[in-house]
Structure formats: structure tokens, C-alpha cells
Amino acid sequence: MDELLKLIYGVFICVLFAVVYLLYPQKSNEDNRNINYGKCGTVSYSIKHKSNVEGNPELGKTIFKNNCTQCHAKNMKSDLTGPPLENSIKRWKNDTIKFGKYLNNSDEYLEEFKDKRILEMKANYRFTANSHKYEFTADEVNSLLFYIEGIAAY
Ligand code: HEC
Asked: What's the pLDDT at 47?
């Protein structure tokens, strides 16, 4: 009888450990996103640590596919007519307003801000024409950035 009690006690302890392990929130260095499953199965995720930009990744994806893939790599890491876009948020120091101005009219942006980094990049990529001239809203710009970072994080 004693043996049986010990066995039951042992099993109970094991199950307890398993439950605690499963319930304990697991953290990994890789996964710095916080994924929320919203209504109707839409997924929104925010990228913690990197920025506090919030946007709609689905909208960002559509805009990116329709406007950017002609010159920028879809994996955000390879070089094409334009540079890889991963870490854009960092390079723009989370300044979504400036980033929006650059996207909505690059020549005007360069004229106004004399951004040395972009001017050098423009020379390196030998792209003399106005590289970006869109009419994105602030929401669309955020969603684009959000999507770019989301893809680059994979
Ligand atoms: C016609 C080609 C072309 C298209 C289309 C294009 N880009 Fe670019 N992009 C470039 C080139 C070339 C550069 C290099 C700098 C320059 O010439 O302004 C660049 C640079 C950039 C940079 C600066 C990278 C950095 O280090 O900060 C960002 C961000 C960017 N593009 C985002 C976009 C997004 C988002 C879209 C779509 C909405 C887009 N681009 C569409 C050609 C393009």
C-alpha cells in the first residue's frame, strides 16, 4: 500500500511540473513580436523592442506588393534596384513623419532635409529619377513600416 501511495505521489508531482511548465510563458530571444488574434481571424502583431509603430500588416502587405516590389526585394534582405528594407524603422529612428515625407516625394524630401545618408544611397544606387512619389496617409505609412519589420524578423 505504501508503495502505491508513493507511486501516486510521484505521478502527481510529475503532472504538476508538466502543468506549470506548459502554463509558464515561454520567452525566446528570437520572438520579439506580440501576436494577437483579433476578430474574424485577422492577425495583428506589434514588434516589441524595435519600435512602437503600430499598423495593419495586411494593409502594409498589399501596399508593398502593389508599389514596392518592382524595386525592393520581397524578403527585405536582398539588393535590387533599391536597397533591402529590413531595419528601415531603426534607420529612420522611428520617425514615421519624415519617412512618410520621403515616400510621398523623395526629391522634395531631399531638398528640404538634405539627408546625407539618403543622398549617398541615391548616388550608390545610381537612381537619378525621383525614387518615390506616392500619396500615402500616415496610417498607410505606419502599416508599410510595420509590414517591412514583420517580414524582416522572420
Ligand atoms: C522605381 C524604383 C523604386 C520603387 C518602386 C520604390 N523604391 Fe524605395 N528606393 C529606391 C531607390 C533607388 C532607393 C535608394 C535611394 C534613392 O534613390 O532615393 C530607395 C530607397 C528606399 C528607402 C531608404 C532605405 C533606407 O535605408 O532607409 C526606403 C525606406 C524605401 N526605398 C522604401 C520604399 C517603399 C516602402 C516603396 C513602396 C511604397 C518603395 N521604396 C518603392 C527605388 C524604389
From this structure: 47
